[in-house]
Amino acid sequence: MAWHGSERRSRLPADWPVRRLSVLKRDGFQCVAILRDTGARCAAPATDVDHIVPGDDHDPANLQSLCRWHHARKSSAEGAAARRRRVSRQRPADRHPGEL
């Protein structure tokens, strides 16, 4: 997620830097994502702390350390899912007069 134009940072708790460091230490500063092809843990260094369940639950149990690649992939998938759930604001197409 690009931080520019986002209010996400303002929704983080005041002690976010401490929580973030705590989660990174807990996870050994290594990405916790599991690789699909091998079932092994990603060996890349963790650079980001991510909410497992999206939202504002900042409990350490809902936080995980991810490498930049896995974090971007997860965020992209969550954004795509959110877009699919949105109700279309586009006006439905008019039916052909012969079908009325």
Give a written overview of the molecule.
This protein has helices spanning 16-26, 68-85; strands at 48-51, 63-66. It contains two helices and two strands, in the order αββα. The mean pLDDT is 89. The protein is 29% helix and 8% strand. A two-stranded antiparallel sheet has the order 1-2. It is α+β, with helices and mostly antiparallel strands. The protein has one domain (8-78). Residues 74-100 are annotated as: Disordered. Keywords: Endonuclease, Hydrolase, Nuclease. GO terms for molecular function: endonuclease activity. Residues 91-100 have a biased composition (Basic and acidic residues). InterPro entries: HNH_nuc.
Attribute tags:
single chain; 100 residues; alpha+beta; two-stranded antiparallel sheet; 2 helices; 2 strands; 29% helix; elongated; HNH endonuclease; hydrolase
Q: What topology, given as strand order, has the largest sheet? A: 1-2
Cα-atom radius of gyration: 19 Å
Give the helix proportion (percent range): 25-40%
Mean of all residue-level pLDDT scores: 89
- Rounded to the nearest angstrom, the distance between the terminal CA atoms is 46 Å
Q: How many strand segments?
A: 2
Main beta sheet: 2 strands, antiparallel
Tell me, briefly, the overall form. elongated
Short description:
The chain contains two helices and two strands; from the N terminus they run αββα. By secondary structure, it is α+β, with helices and mostly antiparallel strands.
Compile the SSE list and pairings:
Layout: H1 16-26, E1 48-51, E2 63-66, H2 68-85
Antiparallel strand pairs: 1-2
Keywords: Endonuclease, Hydrolase, Nuclease
Biased composition (Basic and acidic residues): 91-100
GO molecular function: endonuclease activity
